[in-house]
Amino acid sequence: MAELNLNVDIAPYNARQLRLANPVIVASGTFGYGDEYPHLFDRNRLGAIVCKATTLKPREGNPQPRIAETPNGMLNSIGLQNMGVEAVIREKAPQWYTWGVPVIVNIAAESIEDYAELARRLDKVPGVSGIEVNISCPNVKCGCIEFGSSPESAARVTDAVRNATTLPLIIKLTPNTSSITELARAVADAGADAISLINTLRGMRIDIKKRRPILGNHTGGLSGPAIKPVAVSMVYQVSGAVNVPVIGGGGIMNAEDALEFIMAGATAVQIGTANLVNPRAPLEVLEGLEAYARAEGLKNIREIVGIARS
Ligand SMILES: Cc1cc2nc3c(=O)[nH]c(=O)nc-3n(C[C@H](O)[C@H](O)[C@H](O)COP(=O)(O)O)c2cc1C
């Protein structure tokens, strides 16, 4: 049988590089710190793990309820509950250093200075292989408008983080914007090594008996299969607009879904909500991709990246 190569490089222009054994990444907020499910499957089979959002100080998160089901998806408003960067560096990174799978730290902040400070603290930490910047956060100093909603503010965050670290830098775009391609170009020009998309779409549900919003925080982020066509279309648009690798996700439940993203132009894929339904989903996606590649006689998964564009 021909040798099959599933390796992908998601930061080819960064000297520190981020080579993954395969394109299957678990998405931030849906796989904890990677240490919670050791019995379910061998985490070293994953391409990479993105840990939950990390902020400078620990955060308790939003009031309950934080989750609501929707047709073909879910709403969440966790509110970035996490242990804070110092605890991550002290308690989690030393474990990650011993694993065979790269761990990327997802960072979130309320000011550009805090994003840069997070990157500075993580820069030389053994066990941290890259940074993914969640720019779907409100800028507290500027009227609480999301950093990711305009190309200018997204570029300012990217530039500040870029100057604070040489680690591979992934900027995670929000779909809650008027032009996803302008946003992507702005962050690529400002020094992003890769772009991941999409984060959740803003949404809301009302409890009609109580006549009140269901979520404690009123609104939340919509994820799961309901958002997949939006995500595939944005990956298709962005991968045609930038030269850096695109990491695609949004509603991937199985290998067929992942293939749609890869054919739309994603070099790698992120599995999020599926982990909450079926914790073995990432492994099943990987095995499905392998089976597809062998059945199609591919030598390298890169042969089909963006093939739907040509
Ligand atoms: C419960 C939950 C928590 C999440 N937490 C984060 C987070 O901390 N940081 C982040 O960038 N994205 C977070 N996300 C977004 C996911 O990483 C992913 O981008 C999004 O859900 C779309 O993919 P999916 O439909 O496969 O879930 C979260 C999603 C869910 C469902």
Automatic annotation (TrEMBL):
Reaction equation(s) it catalyzes: (S)-dihydroorotate + A = orotate + AH2
Functional summary from the UniProt entry: Catalyzes the conversion of dihydroorotate to orotate.
Matches recorded under InterPro entries: Aldolase_TIM, DHO_dehydrogenase, DHOD_1B, Dihydroorotate_DH_1, Dihydroorotate_DH_1_2, Dihydroorotate_DH_cat, Dihydroorotate_DH_CS, Dihydroorotate_DH_I
UniProt entry tagged with the keyword Lipid biosynthesis: no
Cofactors named for this entry: FMN
EC number of this enzyme: 1.3.-.-
Active site: 137 (nucleophile)
Pfam (any one): DHO_dh
Keywords: Cytoplasm, Flavoprotein, FMN, Oxidoreductase, Pyrimidine biosynthesis
SUPFAM superfamilies: FMN-linked oxidoreductases
GO molecular-function terms, A-Z: dihydroorotate dehydrogenase activity
Family: Belongs to the dihydroorotate dehydrogenase family. Type 1 subfamily.
UniProt: substrate binding residues: 52, 76-80, 134, 199-200
Pathway it works in: Pyrimidine metabolism; UMP biosynthesis via de novo pathway
Subcellular location: Cytoplasm
UniProt-annotated binding residues for FMN: 28, 52-53, 106, 134, 172, 198, 224, 250-251, 272-273
Protein name: Dihydroorotate dehydrogenase
Originating species: Dehalococcoides mccartyi (strain ATCC BAA-2266 / KCTC 15142 / 195)
Top-level EC class as recorded in UniProt: oxidoreductase
One GO BP annotation of this record: 'de novo' UMP biosynthetic process
Free-text cofactor note: Binds 1 FMN per subunit.
